[in-house]
Amino acid sequence: MAGARVQMPPIEPGVALPIADTTVVSTTPSGQAYVDRGILVKAPAFALPIVSQAERVAINAMWTDVGKGVPVFLAVWEDSLDVEPALYCRINQDRLEFQKAAEAGVLYSLDLEFLEVK
Q1: Rounded to the nearest 10 degrees, how much is the dihedral formed by the CA atoms of 43, 9, 99, 110?
Q2: Does a structural domain hold residue 95?
């Protein structure tokens, strides 16, 4: 898939770009904590409220190529890379769930989650 590009539909305004901690903490019955120290990574999630049929086909083709294990470059705001640079990440979900949008016509909505990889 080298060189392939998928133009996603517009995202909801006011999207958050959270930082996730991949540390795993286990607690024994006596209260002792054991820590497997992880790293801090960006973990953006997006709601795509209007996805056309053509966009759905393109997103499904991308999902077929990369699934949840192949990293991709994500440009959240491609016109403002000084605000948020492109993120090297993977899709962080087991499946894509397109929902029929309430608007008339062949439109869908989709939630996508990503997780930065190093």
Answers
A1: 0
A2: yes
Position of tokens 């869908």?
108
Query: Considering the domain boundaries, does residue 5 fall inside one?
Result: no
Q: What does the pLDDT read at residue 1?
A: 47
85 part of a folded domain: yes
pLDDT tens-digit map of 54-109: 999 999 999 999 999 999 998 887 777 777 888 999 999 999 999 997 777 879 99
How far apart are the C-alpha atoms of 70 and 91, rounded to whole Å?
A: 8
The contacts of residue 101 (CB under 8 Å, 6+ apart) are: 49, 50, 51, 107, 108, 109
Q: How many CA atoms lie within 13 A of 59 on its CB side?
A: 20
Structural domain tally of the chain?
Answer: 1
